[in-house]
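Progress report, Aim 2. The chain analyzed during this reporting quarter is listed below.
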Amino acid sequence: MTSTALHRPGTSPVHRLPAQVKVVAAFTAVLAVVATPREAFWVFGADLAVLVGVWAVAGVPVGWFARRALIEVPFVLLAVVLPFTGSGPRTELLGLSVSVDGALAGWNILAKGTLGVLVSLTLAATTHPHDIVVGMQRLRMPQVVTTIASLMLRYIDVIVAEARRMHTARVCRGHDPRFLWQVGAVARGIGVLFLRSYERGERVHLAMLARGWTGAMPAPTATPAGTAGWFTGLSPALLVAVLAGVGLWTT
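Predicted structure tokens for the chain:
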């Protein structure tokens, strides 16, 4: 997963919207989904219909979103288990006894989690990553947030490439991630990746300070123009955010 892997260039009205407008719209949509009562089933259906309409205008196929939404599979499994493990009144569903509260809790996780992921994918598909950072700056977001986001876009490819090399090395040594008993090896590999990235981050951060860095990042351009104008640094705070995504995409 690279910093631009989720972006689908286009000239649709959705693509042409200013980045700050799409950032605010995505944030507002997520807040609205979270605030929706779990019993309001029709509201979740309406939210999904709006998203499908946006995809149609943007010219992005539904299948593209469906494949990338698989990242939420662990939460789907939790939502499926809750109806059977929940407490309180129970009812019959397809011949099985399920908890009413557990079923509603599972539905709540599934609906809100899925819509949240789809909103994020919609923003990523229709907005270049660098444009998102520009939009965040225009919205006067805290400087530390935009700095971390800028560095993440610059260095996520480095971290992912490191994870792929480690995965290749494990496979060459007989590791097969399809077997459950090798989950421990994957977990240890993620830990090693974190340590390597953290050490790299410290070295580069010291190099940045030696060159007069004061904590401010240069304003990114609307489209990537190479790496000449970018700082080559990585902070420990960035590593935590990057590794959270790497851990999901490499296991």
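The longest strand covers residues 90-93. The first helix runs from residue 13 to 16. These observations will guide the mutagenesis work planned for the next reporting period.
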